[in-house]
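Team,

Forwarding the record for the chain on the shared tracking sheet. I've put the sequence and predicted structure together so nobody has to dig through attachments.
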Amino acid sequence: MKAKQKLALSSTQIILLSFLVTVLLGSLLLFLPISAKSGTSVSYIDALFTATTATCVTGLVTLPTATTWSVFGQVVILLLIQIGGLGTITVLSGIVIALHRKMGLKDHQLISDALNVSSLSGLADLVKKVICGTLLIEGVGALLYLPVFLPEFGARGIWISVFTSISAFCNAGIDIIGEVSLCNYAYHPLINAVTSALIVLGGIGFIVWWDVLRVLKGFRSQGIRCLHRLTLHSKIVLLTTAVLIFGGAACIFIFEYQNPLTIGNCSLFNKIQVSLFQSITTRTAGFATVPQECLTSAGAIICLFLMFIGGSPVGTAGGVKTVTLAVLAVTALSVIRNKNEATLFNRALSREAVRKSIGVVCTSFFIMLLSTVLLAAVTPAPALDIIYETVSATATVGLTRNLTPFLNTAGKIIIIATMYFGRVGPISLAIAFQTKKEITQNIKNPTEDVTVG
């Protein structure tokens, strides 16, 4: 019995290992000669890097996706993106449900941890909704891309539309159009609108979808007042997302307004369009309509902040998440106002939410800082470019100031590790290796005051 207990893995450890196994299997497939367009295997470190960036839905690439990988290789990458966006456990659970196999209590607990939901009831229906909703939105996105890509690329435009839609919804930022991401479509309203919508829908989180749909059923009878029935989580996600998108776009618009390398020579409409897309894509999507290395220092710093925050919980985006930002901001405000509790929308936030938010931010910052120091030690590049790279990897964004293609082997290994840790989540890492509960958790130590600030 003791041997079995020692070998037993927690659900969090299973989630971590499932991502690792997916990355390794993907790297082996991409290492095959059939995966390369040239028919000759790429180096294993580049295959591993590509498998990691796809599974972790990051988007940083050492080799151009469109010109390096064959159709087989691109299919492998797209499958890794889809698995990484939904989560390996969610995909496996969907397969089990499709095969009409029953799931036990441990299976339900594993799905609950994977989707970051507290209730164990109705998980099978939730998995079905997540998968079906994802495929539906990605399908609609692909259809909306067709009027642009089909005339331009012919029959290949169908594959490009499907690939781009899945990559955008999963916040991966990998494309097979060319080597400059979406820069050739910077002023294309349809491409901007469809890509932005897919990014936001994937980033706000699955549970917000169902909550909004539930509330909208009462729109006819209650009108706009029905929005008050949204859960506190949904209200925080939607408000914080809107503030970050439009606030970030306003800052980028101001700081890049006269920059001829980005939007300085554009019309007013295109300046607004590019600024808005840049604000949205930095929320861990990774597509670019302007070269990131051409941003002003002020614009780049705003993008660093947006990248670090990322999307929302239970979605396809990375980062420390919008709810984390809101919880910490409100907590800080309550301290400044000398209030005993932090409140949002007339609801008090739990201490557990505050503690977890602090843990997420501190751990993510430590990962980013360590990655920055290590990458700076092995990479001769400007500090801003290195920080942009490591924040992008930590938050699984995928934007780069043209540094990724020039990383040496040590730099690639550092970014691979950073992308993996950034995807599985700093809190998950802490829980995964906590194999034993502290027997003293109910024992309170003496309290002593310290000087802060």
